[in-house]
Write a structure and sequence with these properties.
Blueprint (H helix, E strand, L loop, with lengths): L12 H13 L4 H11 L3 H61 L9 H10 L1 H9 L6
C-alpha cells in the first residue's frame, strides 16, 4: 500500500543494511518501513527502539567529542599564551630588578652591601615596592 520498496527492503543482508542506513541515518521512510513490520510482529518495536536509541546516542557522542576536543584545544592554546605572557613578565621584572640593584650600588663594586640594601629599601620607592611585593620586610 504505497511502498514499492517494502517487499525487498529486508530481502538480503545488503538490502537490510541499505534500508537501515537510509532509515536510521537519513531518517527517510521510517514510518513506511518500520510501522508495517511492527504491526506484523509487535516485538520488533523493541529492536527498532534499541537501534534508533543506539544511533542517536552515537551521533550525540560524536558531536560531544568534537565540542570537547575544540574546548581542549582552546584551553591548550590559552595555557600556552599564558605561559608566554608570564615568561615575558618575568624577563621584564628581572631586567627592572637588575637596573634597580645597579642604581643602589653606590660604590659601583657590582655587589650590594647591607647598608646599600637598607638605604635603597627606605629611600628608593621602586626598590621598596619591589621588596614589599616579594613580601620582604626590613626589620
Amino acid at each position: 500500500d504505497g511502498c514499492e520498496r517494502c517487499p525487498r527492503a529486508f530481502s538480503s543482508v545488503q538490502s537490510s543494511m541499505l534500508t537501515f542506513m537510509q532509515t536510521l541515518l537519513a531518517g527517510d521512510s521510517w514510518g513506511q518501513l518500520a510501522v508495517p513490520i511492527i504491526e506484523q510482529s509487535p516485538l520488533t518495536h523493541v529492536y527498532f527502539l534499541i537501534v534508533l536509541t543506539t544511533v542517536c546516542i552515537a551521533v550525540v557522542n560524536l558531536i560531544l567529542a568534537a565540542i570537547v576536543e575544540a574546548a581542549n584545544q582552546a584551553r591548550i592554546e590559552g595555557d600556552r599564551q599564558l605561559a608566554i605572557l608570564k615568561e615575558a613578565q618575568f624577563v621584564k621584572a628581572q631586567e627592572e630588578f637588575i637596573t634597580l640593584c645597579k642604581d643602589l650600588d653606590m660604590d659601583e663594586t657590582g655587589n650590594l652591601s647591607l647598608d646599600e640594601l637598607k638605604q635603597g629599601f627606605h629611600e628608593n620607592t621602586d626598590f621598596g615596592s619591589c621588596m614589599k611585593a616579594m613580601d620582604i620586610k626590613f626589620d
